[in-house]
Here is the input.
Amino acid sequence: MSTARSHWSTRFAFILAAVGSAVGLGNLWKFPYMAGANGGGAFVLIYLLCIAAVGVPIFIAELYIGQKGQKNAVASFEATHEKNTPWRCIGFMGLASAFIILSFYSVVGGWILDFSFKSIFNQFAGKSDEEDKGFLGALFESPWTQVGWHFVFMTGTVGIVLGGVRNGIEKWNKILMPTLFALLGVLFIYSFTLSGFSQSISFLFSPDTSKLTAAGVLEAVGHSFFTLSLGMGAIITYGSYLKKKEGLAKIAITVAFLDTLVALIAGVVIFSVVFTHGMEPGGGPTLLFQTLPVLFSKMTGGYILAVAFFLLVAFAAFSSSVSLLEVAVAYWVETKKKDRVRTTLLIGIVIFGIGVLSALSTNVLSDVKIFKFTFFDLFDKLTSSIFLPLGGVLISLFYGWVLGPKAIEESLSLGKKPSLMKIGLLWTTRVLAPVAVMIVLVKGVMDF
Here is the structure.
């Protein structure tokens, strides 16, 4: 099976796919509202430090496990260690995480498609502020609309994965990612013309530690880990399609840089719009779906801006959802020797069915609670607060302690000669990264 394994055609193709996996709603939705709620610059500074100290090392670890194993997210642990190793439980946890996350991520992707549709047909214009803010509430109250858009989003995701690594994921990422960067570039250039641009720059890049709390620091640590799609098997799976000759450190740094750049530029664009209209940056999760439609409707060229922005977010959502589905498909096809097309369709149908529970959590099933959570919140909390950070801690320990110095040397392609880079990566993955993510895990368990 390994001799016939598909691989990315080039390193650039892999970088596009990995950036596509990393760049998603976390960059264009979660990061801006987290930065806004935590005072801007100080949060951004902590976030950047965490990307370097936590995100990149664990990213390298996942890449190495996948590339070395040349198998799916579960079997790669066996290939790099030993048959039936207990460490393969990390792969199963990542598999479960990808499965569950995609079920509710697709629902949110459906919200994005709904707002993209509304922006294309100029439905935000000519409405009062309350009417524009009410679009999200109306969507939440309509079970059929949510399920319908969830179906459309999941269908698009399945359609891309059906083509396989080169003809599906790689091909579409070569379309989605350049378009995403082009749209983001246009929006960034447009933000230069807004009166709130300089205030946005100052807010995001002038640290004010007085506005940063301990909770904000933990959010920065957690998001630096989650934004790179770590702990869910996606990077291990994508890494397994890398040829063994490819160096990992430069790839990891490149992907992390581009992922972070997208988040920062998106933050500048969003806060330029927010400050131009004299609104507070700490709008929270409603920033994307309630605040921005109101502001777009009031701006010169707001129609074009709204269409470009929501299409940008939709493309980012698709590029991430594809990597989540591929985790489950790759495991099932390789382990069970099943046909890829039928497997992709079957898994897509099952994930869609589970996602319906999340789509109905804001209406028909809103009163159904498990551990005080709706289905949507339960799936989100279970993965983001437990599965992903636990997987990250274990991956870091497996790479740093079990695979050890040899894995570090192979990852960095520096040979056996001692260097600060090797020592730094070794002890970051052995101690710093797992301790940092463990704190996030403990906090998540306490909040559950």
